[in-house]
UniProtKB/TrEMBL annotation:
Biological-process GO terms, alphabetical: antibiotic catabolic process
Organism: Cereibacter changlensis JA139
Cofactor: Zn(2+)
Ranges where the Metallo-beta-lactamase domain occurs: 14-193
Protein name stated in the entry: MBL fold metallo-hydrolase
Any one GO molecular-function label of the UniProt entry: RNA endonuclease activity
Pfam families: Lactamase_B
Record key words, sorted: Hydrolase, Metal-binding, Zinc
Length: 360
């Protein structure tokens, strides 16, 4: 019988790393690092892996790839945008990329994929057909830039439960953020919500500046129009035509969006301390505040603000996900015990696992 084991990513916002044993094969789903303090999964009991499948390119799902040699150097499977945005070939990348919407064979197992929103090239995957598992990866059905389609039915589900039972809509969050008085610095991942926020501010008539990392992603994704939501290509073209390029010595003006998300890397690492110190721009973080990172410290000390921009399922999204999958058992990932219990209470009738393992 199939078995899923969470080596990391259960009971908290740890790096994604799951092992699925199915049809005599052992598949690893993501191999991340962080987001807190550079944490890596414990692979001491992982054993040999037949294939490694990546849901998307964020570091908390791919940052552990240097550990691949401990797994027997399995082939790595990812979508074409994830590979392109990596900047260099992923180690051991399989020749045939994962499709946006379709079916492939990996280690002799049928793997079906569909767009998962959230980030460039992000996919959910159904492994082993209707009697197998759906892994959503990080999932969002609210993005206006990255496409999303509901997953297929399966007997078991490993879902992105990052927000627990919280249910505030992105439309409300974006309206509140757009109403903030500038100048603003918004640290954000270049391959994710950063470009979404930039497009929204530009559409609302704000002056927008983007760091080179964001501009690079926008240019790359123009080459993957099938991986953009309706209107997404036009939004990227407008950003590339109208957004200013941000640099380390840029003055505070308009809305400035810079990598990385926690101001511990990228151009945000240079700009956030300067703007906090001088008060020339307000710094607003919009995603997970990594423990010990400048983002967490600045928000805790009331020197920066936190305003969420949804990139994971809110409660209604989780309800729709589970209605599509119709699983007999669910492992909720990327959420602590309190959030998991709140989600279970809000969705009675769903059998949520309280252990880092599923067997069905």
């Amino acid at each position: 019988m199939p078995r899923l084991l969470a080596l990391s990513g259960f009971d908290g916002k740890g790096p994604a790393c799951f092992v699925l044993e199915i049809e005599g094969r052992r598949l690893m789903l993501d191999l991340g690092k962080g987001p807190d303090a550079g944490r890596l999964p414990d692979l001491s009991g992982a054993g040999r892996i037949d294939a490694l499948i990546l849901s998307h390119g964020h570091a908390d799902h791919t940052g552990g790839l240097p550990l691949r040699d401990r797994l027997g150097l399995p082939d790595v499977h990812a979508t074409a945008p994830v590979s392109a945005l990596a900047g260099e070939p992923l180690p051991g990348l399989a020749a045939t990329p994962l499709p946006r919407s379709g079916s492939t064979r990996i280690a002799g197992i049928t793997v079906e994929t569909g767009a998962a929103g959230h980030a460039p090239g992000a996919v959910w995957m159904r492994i082993g057909g209707a009697g197998g598992l759906v892994y959503t990866g990080d999932y969002s059905d609210e993005s206006r830039l990255w496409p999303c389609e509901p997953p297929l039915p399966a007997q078991a589900a490993l879902i992105d439960a990052s927000y627990g039972a919280e249910d505030e809509a992105l439309a409300q969050q974006s309206a509140a953020l757009l109403a903030e008085a500038g100048p603003l610095l918004l640290p954000a991942p270049a391959g994710g919500r950063g470009l979404e926020m930039a497009a929204a501010f530009l559409e609302a008539g704000h002056e927008v500046s983007l760091c080179p990392a964001h501009l690079r992603v926008a240019r790359q994704m123009r080459g993957f129009p099938d991986w953009l939501a309706p209107g997404g290509l036009a939004a990227l073209e407008r950003l590339l035509a109208e957004a200013r390029e941000l640099s380390a010595d840029s003055p505070a003006r308009g809305v400035m969006i810079a990598a990385g998300a926690n101001a511990d890397a990228g151009l945000a690492q240079d700009l956030a301390p300067r703007f906090v110190e001088t008060g020339a721009a307000r710094v607003i973080f919009t995603g997970h505040l990594a423990l010990g990172a400048p983002s967490e410290t600045l928000v805790r000390e009331d020197r920066a603000l936190f305003r969420r921009w949804n990139v994971h399922p809110r409660l209604s999204g989780s309800r729709a996900l589970l209605a599509a999958i119709r699983p007999a058992v669910v492992l909720p990932a990327f959420v602590g015990a309190e959030g998991r219990q709140a989600l279970a209470a809000a969705l009675p009738g769903i059998r949520f696992s309280d252990r880092a393992e599923l067997v069905w």
